[in-house]
Specification:
The structure holds 2 protein chains of 2 kinds. Chain A is built from 13 helices and 17 strands. Chain A is of the alpha/beta class. Among the domains of chain A are: 167 residues, Rossmann fold (3-Layer(aba) Sandwich); 74 residues, no CATH class. In chain A, the strands form 4 sheets. In chain A, strands 1-14-13-17-15-16 form a 6-stranded mixed β-sheet. Chain A has a 4-stranded antiparallel β-sheet with strand order 2-8-7-4, with no helix packed on it. The termini of chain A are far apart. Chain B is an all-alpha fold. A two-stranded antiparallel sheet of chain B has the order 1-2. The longest helix of chain B is centred in the first third of the chain and has 24 residues. The two termini of chain B are 54 Å apart. Classes of the chains: A alpha/beta, B mainly alpha. Chains A and B meet through helix 8, strand 15, strand 16, strand 17 and helix 9 of A and helix 1 and helix 3 of B.
Chain lengths: 445, 404
């Protein structure tokens, strides 16, 4: 079966929310919209305190003075109402970041000119890209890379394969699974729109083998269309771009390179759906499906919520249990632990995981068991990286390829000495970036 | 954050229904951990040695348990003491010192006086393990170093030519002995003998020595004739006869009805424990398989030297691979010592090299070395080479293009 080298087999914990159909939540009383929900140049607010806004209206756009503003994605109002604040607030990605706060007027009225249906067949590649860009669509699996950038490769890179990442390999999360089960035809439509924008003839869908019913639903929806549905072995991180590409096409993305380098573009399930809605209805990205799950909630569920809805609202809907120790934005392997439930759902929030047990905190010296080396999907030696970072030796860390790590967490999951390897990797990368910036500054002066 | 405080003070309708989830823990991902940890590994490995211990008590008497208890107690106490002196957290509950103590005893004979296991354990824990920084930082396998140390200190008690406890020797003890306890040497003789490997090696050495002596006497004219192999065929016959006289039946070797160290005699039970370790993914099957296979292959192939009438015959491919496999400490070494995570290479490729190296050195020492058994020194030598092996067997980075 399609797979890759390394990886781990944790229990998938999908049973919590797997059976719960997508449930729309009413628009929140107050929506907090961070100006940076994506990788790239942050947006600047286009509204000010007191302005009246309608649903789908632009509230933040890429800073026009920034020469790199192409790598960015606009932010739209997710409710209609009044702007009550333009100020820094805690977000899932940062303790404090600029946000536009909108108080809902309860009318939920769309801005003018939206929702007029167009036949997507009439759109050419550039029109699709333009609609994706203006809808503010980013990779919705968590990383948040602007989608229009991803489908605008430099002319020297020939793209021949488009892959829909339907692996959803993070334990607990089921939002993509529900979309595949409930809306497979729309997904395929969105995927084919992306293929058209890229000028790629056929597309692949990679599903993990623990979601065979989803694969079947997609196969039915894709009948007669140039879409291949492939099943991959259940193994974390099957949904990591490079590992998925390798599993399906046997192409290796070069270390430090991008999927573009081997002619591949990978898109997420929710992203494909957002693309369809943007192309068909000119609908900006203002809502998404979020899995609320874990031992810490009474009723795990998958909700369709507006961006900017506080985590607290979703947790209320699912019923928070006593003794919660962790609230995590995303899945357990790569998600970000939150210090407060008063952060908003953003474009990359695929799930809210509530845990009642914290992972053990005591760690020991490396015992050279080699489990991390076996688990590393990137063929790194996390034992050496952790030892280098523990000794604060940045040169050594760089020499043992710390920069090739994408922090999937396999090494830390398997480590019997409980070493916080990913923590050290994040530290090492940040320090190396700091040092590089300093050196550049010195060179300039 | 002042923002948050203000919010907490202002009553929100949602907050009444939901208890405030505090304190929230903010740590780096991943938030999920495998249930494996060091104590679980150490205690599980120790548990797989229980049948081996039980067999040792059955075969060598309660003395085996006493020696093991002394070794374990000394190891645990030494580690705890040193950690206390260094002001470090005391980690003896993780089972690594306990396991080291057990392994120290398992590579010593049951008749060893109390100070032998004690010294071996103290040396293993204090010098070999803690002096290098504790668990994870030691270069050599502590248990084997402990054995090597007492072997150098009390060669007569531990080393090759010592009389080793015979299996069931304690059961054969004549009852009258209790009447004459003063004659200690006799008591020891009644219950000990040579190990299978040393019997064969000493027998061969004795044979060669005798023949050489005869030739010398013949040349000096003090002897009329020499009884010695005249061709390879006769050398082979002489070897076979020697094996008939000095050899131990394979099934005795396999089940452990033979003399040897406390934990090494029963290949069968060590093999069972090893299978559990492989099934639990605590050790890689490649290490014991390659170690044992290499030692057996070379033990079979490497020439055996027999003194003949006019020349020394080198008999190639004349070894007994099954005897090589099941005798001595090969199973204990291959399943429990060469697989020690700390002192063996990190990658599977490195471990393969390590295991083959152990096998080669074991065979060389067994055939040509001064000791009848080579497993201990073979593993210690390969431990020494581990950092170098690690350097040349690094994992290959995914998608890394090798610069030409």
């Amino acid at each position: 079966m399609n797979t890759f080298r390394g990886g781990i087999h944790p229990h998938d914990f999908k049973e919590f929310a797997k059976g719960s159909p997508i449930q729309p939540l009413p628009p929140p009383a107050e929506a907090t919209l961070p100006m940076s929900q994506h990788l790239g140049v942050p947006c600047v607010p286009t509204v000010k305190k007191g302005d009246a806004v309608r649903k789908g209206q632009l509230v933040g756009e890429p800073d026009p003075s920034n020469p790199r503003r192409f790598v960015s994605a606009p932010v739209h109002a997710s409710v209609s109402g009044k702007v009550t604040a333009v100020e820094p607030r805690p977000t899932p990605l940062a303790p404090s970041a600029p946000c536009v706060v909108i108080e809902s007027d309860g009318e939920d009225a769309w801005a003018d000119g939206l929702l007029a249906e167009t036949d997507p067949a009439t759109l050419d590649g550039n029109a699709i890209k333009a609609r994706i860009q203006s809808a503010g669509i980013v990779g919705m699996g968590g990383a948040g890379f602007p989608t229009h950038v991803k489908i605008s490769p430099p002319p020297e890179k020939k793209i021949d394969t488009l892959i829909l990442n339907a692996a959803e390999c993070e334990p607990y999360l089921t939002c993509d699974y529900r979309l595949m089960i409930e809306r497979p035809a729309e997904l395929v439509e969105g995927l084919l729109l992306l293929a058209k924008a890229l000028g790629v003839k056929d597309a692949w869908i990679g599903v993990e083998a623990n979601k065979l019913d989803a694969a079947e639903a997609l196969r039915k929806a894709a009948e007669g269309k140039p879409v291949r549905v492939e099943v991959c072995k259940v193994k974390y991180p099957q949904g990591a771009e490079k590992q998925l590409i390798y599993a399906l096409t046997r192409r290796r993305v070069p270390a430090g390179g991008l999927p573009l380098d081997v002619g591949v573009v990978v898109q997420n399930v929710a992203t494909a759906l957002a693309v369809r809605e943007a192309c068909r209805f000119q609908k900006p990205l203002i809502e998404r499906v979020v899995t609320v799950t874990g031992e810490g909630v009474e009723r795990p569920a998958n909700y369709l919520v507006r961006l900017g809805t506080p985590f607290r609202t979703l947790l209320d809907a699912s019923g928070l249990r006593d003794g919660v120790r962790k609230i995590i934005a995303g899945g357990p392997m790569m998600g970000i632990a939150q210090g407060t439930p008063d952060v908003p759902v953003v474009k990359g929030t695929s799930g809210i995981l509530v845990l009642r047990e914290a992972e053990p905190a005591d760690w020991r010296a490396c015992i050279s068991c080699g489990r991390c080396v076996e688990a590393c999907p990137m063929g790194l030696m996390p034992n050496e990286i952790s030892i280098a970072c523990e000794a604060r030796d940045l040169d050594m860390a760089a020499a043992v390829n710390i920069l090739d790590c994408f922090e999937c967490g396999c090494c830390t999951y398997v480590c019997p000495a409980r070493r916080p390897i990913v923590h050290w990797v994040k530290w090492g990368k940040a320090e190396l970036a700091k040092r590089k910036a300093q050196q550049q500054k010195q060179k300039a002066s | 954050m002042p923002d948050e405080d203000a919010k907490a003070a202002a009553p929100e309708p949602a907050m009444e229904a939901v208890p405030e989830p505090r304190p929230l823990l903010v740590t780096t991902s991943p938030h999920l951990r495998s249930p494996e940890n060091i104590p679980r590994i150490m205690w599980t490995v120790t548990a797989t040695l229980v049948p081996v211990m039980a067999w040792a008590v059955y075969a060598f008497g309660p003395r085996a348990l006493i020696v093991t208890a002394i070794a374990v107690a000394s190891a645990v106490a030494t580690e705890a003491l040193i950690q206390k002196l260094r002001g470090k957290p005391i980690t003896v509950s993780d089972g690594s010192a306990f396991l080291s103590g057990v392994l120290v005893a398992f590579v010593l004979p049951a008749h060893a006086p109390w100070y032998v296991p004690m010294t071996a354990s103290i040396f293993a824990m204090a010098i070999v393990k803690q002096l290098f920084g504790g668990l994870g930082c030691n270069i050599w396998n502590p248990a084997l170093m402990g054995r090597a140390f007492v072997m150098a200190s009390w060669a007569v008690l531990v080393a090759a030519n010592a009389k080793w406890p015979t299996a069931f020797g304690h059961l054969k003890k004549p009852k009258a002995e209790a009447v004459a306890p003063s004659d200690k040497a006799e008591e020891v003789d009644a219950t000990t003998g040579a190990t299978p490997l040393s019997k064969l090696k000493d027998g061969l050495r004795e044979f060669n020595r005798k023949v050489a002596k005869q030739i010398k006497e013949f040349k000096a004219g003090r002897r009329a004739s020499v009884v010695a192999p005249r061709d390879a065929r006769e050398a082979w016959d002489a070897l076979c006869q020697l094996r008939e006289e000095q050899g131990t039946p394979i099934d005795d070797l396999y089940f452990g009805r033979t003399g040897g160290c406390i934990g090494e005699v029963s290949a069968c039970l060590l093999f069972l424990g090893g299978i559990v370790l492989v099934a639990l993914n605590y050790i890689k099957w490649q290490v014991p398989v390659l170690f044992i296979a290499t030692a057996a292959l070379l033990g079979w192939a490497l020439p055996i030297r027999i003194q003949g009438e006019s020349q020394v015959f080198s008999l190639w491919f004349a070894g007994q691979p099954l005897v090589e496999i099941f005798s001595g400490g090969l199973f204990l070494g291959a399943f429990y010592m060469a697989t020690d995570m700390v002192t063996s290479p990190v990658t599977t490729k490195g471990q393969v090299i390590f295991a083959v190296g152990c096998g080669i050195l074991t065979a060389l020492i067994r055939r040509y070395g001064g000791y009848p058994e080579g497993v201990c020194y073979a593993i210690l030598l390969m431990n020494t080479a581990t950092p170098m092996i690690n350097r040349y067997t690094r994992a290959k980075v995914f998608g890394k293009v090798v610069k030409k």
